[in-house]
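Q: What does the assembly look like in three dimensions?
Context provided by user:
Components: two
Sequences:
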Amino acid sequence: MTAMLTRPGDAVRADRDSFRRLLHAEWTKFRTVRGWVIGTIAGGLLIIAVNLIPGGQCGGMQANGQPSLGGPGCALTLGPAGQAVTDSFYFVHQPMGPAGSITVRVTSLTGSYPPGNSPGQPAASALQPWSKAGIIIKASTRPGSAYAAMMVTGSHGVRMQWDYTQDTPGLGGAVSQTTPRWLRLTRAGDTVTGYDSADGARWARIGVATLPRLPATVQAGLFAASPGSSSVTSQSATGSSGSGASAQATAAFDRVDLRRMPPGSRWRGTSIGAVPNPGNQSPGGGYRQSGGTLTVTGSGDIAPSLPGGDGGTAGSVAGTEVGTFAGLIAVLVVATMFITAEFRRGLIRVTLTASPRRSRVLAAKAIVLGAVTFLVGLPAAYIALLTGERKEQAGGISMYPVPVLTELRLIVGTAALLAVAAVLALGIGAAIRRGAAAVTAVIAVIVLPYFFAGPLAVLPAGAAEWLLRLTPAAGFSIQQAYPRYFQLGFSYTPGNGYFPLAPWAGFAVLCLWAALALGLAGYLLRRRDA
Amino acid sequence: MLDATIEVNGLRKRFGPTVALDGMTFTVHPGQVTGFVGPNGAGKSTTMRVILGLDAADEGAALVSGRPYQTLHRPLTHVGSLLDAAALQPSRSARNHLLWLAHSQGLGARRVDAVIEQAGLQSAARRKAGGYSLGMRQRLGIAAALLGDPPVLMMDEPFNGMDPEGIIWMRGFLRSLATQGRTVLVSSHLMSELQDMADHLVIVGRGKVIADTSTRELLAAASGDRVMVRTSSAPEATAVLARAGAIVAADSDGALTVSGLAAEKVVSLLGAKAVPFSEVSAHHATLEQAYLELTRDAAQYRAADAAASPPGPSGPAGHGGTPASGPSAASGQEAAR
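A: Here is the predicted structure of the complete assembly.
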């Protein structure tokens, strides 16, 4: 009965065998308490159940605070890469062949509120930081088509932007009569190169855009657009609310120089992205030509579009997983009980007589708990995504598309979040030993920071972000579905689904906490009398 | 293969200001039931927890079959233990409780069903253990202890909460385990529970061993060579027996207790002198009486010895002049053997 272990290989094998037996025992322990099995499955169902509550209908404010044409996500404009974009502006254009260039001088950019749509603020404030005007080469006048543009902006200087997500800075400073900006785009096949200059003599190349499968004939010309004014005025239980008003930008161009346009072309003005919508003129706009000067006025934006600007999660893929916190509570209670129940009844002594190596007992519990939670969380997160999308679509809301890898991260990440949080709960439970106190502590460190900083949004943004950096709630970062765009003025707050840490970095913070808790629990378990 | 023993050597442990173990030393041998007796708080449970590696002793060591418990592979196949019958997840069935224990030792469901039968729990095995009476929990604890078919068994107060029928079953069961050659250590705070079951006794008080003796020796010492006589002519009988060299004392109920003469001698003397008697019998002390006598002496010893305490864990060794002196003196040597 006492095997003499002489060779190190035998010892290693015996160790592995004993750990495998321990895992088997802990799994048997877990599955034979019906409450724990039900609790875990209930956790999975809770993640899904939130999506069974009927959702909103399409309508309301757009991400940029502009009363939208039909509302958020009702009908999304998709860009060349398949992502949701805003593509509405005033376009003064002519056709351009496979090769050509356009050069202009911009001498002013001003903002104004359209008639009947003034928020009661001085007109001077109407110029938005990302009001933009300049030259653009665009595949077609269809919203969402590929483009490359050189532009002056309200407060971000000269930029070259293309295909909605790409943004490169050029000359800084504001444009004026005394500091005009020269802009140039040249096209050679699929490649569009942008230049800027302060004097029309010395040119600097800003960027080279490759626009795959650009048609032979594209539209080239001048544009103006301005996102609406928006300011976050308050954060409440339903998220942040802002006031917004549509604005328009007007730019004056001269020294317009078009090369190699098809013969007989002349300017045409088109309001891109204008959807007939009674009572809503925007994005209106137009142009005037006098002498060598073209004045273009337009509103709207050429930029990525993000869900949830009004504090809701309509159309957000991440929003389908909003039930995670509810499921997490159930999982955390089970995870804590998995160890505290043993302390309560003295069962831990039976466990430790069967497996005297205490750290291994904790490790086996962590593995069983993590695996069970992950395997329940995985289908739950997947089904939540499907049901959430179906709910939104039932309300006429389109989902803001994300890459497949992001969807995968969302599903796997949600399951992993549950699993690692469960291990953290186990560690805290083993250290505190008393069920009620441990459950309270676990929920206080994981769920509450997330809930107060995120969906409830009752904390100031700064405090909320620090909580989501430092507490285990940082793990929720794994559910951020959409990137930040510098060129899009947006309330990138936890309430809108934005976390201060990158997805995997935030998850790593949670993992670190779990490792710390487990380490402390192991230390205490070894030191204390059972 | 090492001998299946439990060796406890010089265990000391304090819980804050309380001394729980004060040099606890004894050895438990196979093939017999060893009773581990002492009042509540004497350190029995703490000793058992230290043996199982659950509590750490401040000093001293405990070995099972020559090895520290923590180094045993599949420990339940070496030692079966029942410390606390209430140590259960109430919502788990008895069978599943045994099943996870079995899995932890690489054993299967067949073994679980076998011990359920041994413990007589077949009909209740699939019920939630939370609904069990204390007596049933004790049976479940026995089943758990037997799971690994261990050569060493250790039970802490297994009779608690059992009905008389259960106690009889438990006695027989533990005896049969010892008969199979196993080492069986059973603690109790009631000596009477161990009557007719324990072959050997380790009697403890205040964290150390007071006596380490076989039950037979203890009883013999407590009984002495006394004979009880019932007679209607007590003065005559006393005179006759005293003349023959016996010491005669009158009991409160009119019987005489005679020391220094065998029963047959008493009968022939009384018969020769025609002193009528209705009964002559050898006096049998109960374990309870022996134990009380012993612990009373130990208490006297402790009181008398408060100033000049002899070192070592051997308890009241060398304290002579009482019926218990013989067996009690053995404890130190017993452990060292």
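Follow-up: The interface with chain A takes residues 1-2, 49, 52-56, 65, 67, 69-70, 72-79, 81, 83-84, 86-93, 96-97, 99-101, 103-106, 144, 151 of chain B (CB under 8 Å).
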